[in-house]
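Appendix B, record 7
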Amino acid sequence: MSKTKEFLIPFVGLKLGKHHFEYQINNKFFKDFEYEEFQNSDIKVNLLFDKKSNMLELEFKHKGTVNVPCDLTGEDFDLPIKGKMKLIVRFGEEFNDDNEELLILPHGEHEVDVAQYIYEMIALSVPQKRIHPGVKDGTLQTEALTKLNELSVKEQKEESKQEEDIDPRWEKLKKLLTDK
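Structure tokens (predicted):
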């Protein structure tokens, strides 16, 4: 991931207190991470940046849509997503991002890159199973579903036809069992 200035926050020049940042995320952002799960994306990220004397508190919130294929039908649809995440930035001897909620920057650092955290927050908010809303409520009409419905109707007709063509010898045997 190449560092872009848009996601670098120079906190040295900021006054103590809360600051607001907004980002509009689209597919170009995900291409920088070589993540191509979405056909299209439109996500708004709000960042509340609270600068304190000995640490920084970042609160991310996002809301928007990503265009993904349905796992059942293969049809593309806009999946609404939203989520939030908190991050605390402290200062120490060396860089450490082992903990997902705590980032340690070396003393003397003057900016923080939030792109990786925005990427992870959005990627983790997309559900594993993606089902088109039209499948859930029965309003989705596709060629594949139409063909499946045609085939299922034929199968039911064939089953009822088989029940009508029962060998008369079996009927007599069934009668013997019920006459006991």
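Remarks on this record: Residues 143-164 form the longest helix (22 residues). The longest strand covers residues 76-92.
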